[in-house]
């Protein structure tokens, strides 16, 4: 059935440890959330429409199954695909949940490698989507036009539950060179334990209102309010994240949860920025693209990462962000459909 095989290429999934990301094609863009990408208007493609995005918490996978059933299968007049429907899937959940998707929806996963999908997703965005990459410094967002002939090499830092750092040298030419387990999952996990927040959005909202200096030990706290200028450390630089809690004589309950959330966000973002910079230095890479759902376009996070990269590299390396940061793997899996 030719209609079936066309529909098949309309959906790709990236099932991660925390979130499920969906990219799907919609001819008229119905029900698309913000950020959808118009495709097929350049004369190269026969189909015109929009690439739409959706995300679900992995622990609420039933919501995702319902969404696919309603918006993708039934929309195409299919109740249950009876194993005829195969979709591109990546991330650990492509293995873990393969049986569930087959049983509940009749969908069979055509698995794509996770790192490969990430890199394909970024390359696709940088090559085809205008105003995708931007820098964020001093509260200013500035879009960067990347010359296609001068794209490589670059460092891709994907901040999901954990963090992967990938050196990209070309289409399909890449190597995972580093990573850290202190990632978005750590921020959310520790944040839930320390502040009793129930969700990522709640934790972010709290962190907006907080002041990290209440709990972080600053250089000035150690030096009696002055800079340690000899080695270039200002009095406001963080000497030790959460360090004030040692001697404050306070219990967790005595701190405002917003201050705890702020220190935590700062600690995780700073650490990732620093490791990213060190790896960029290790391989002489000037451009670092940050992706993953941890960033969520959040100014404070981007600012912390940018300042860390700028500070440590003395302005040599540039931190860049992507508008579709959370959907890199899903987009890469989507682009792996052959026309
Ligand atoms: P993974 O593929 O490992 O699930 P993602 O790129 O989807 O990784 O990022 C997951 C991280 O994004 C979480 O650990 C959390 O820090 C952050 N995040 C952003 N938005 C949400 C949300 N709505 N719910 C849960 N985590 C979120």
TrEMBL record:
Pfam families: Fumble (PF03630). CDD domains: ASKHA_NBD_PanK-II_Pank4. Signal peptide: none annotated. It comes from the Eukaryota. This is Pantothenate kinase 1. The lineage of its organism: Eukaryota, Viridiplantae, Streptophyta, Embryophyta, Tracheophyta.
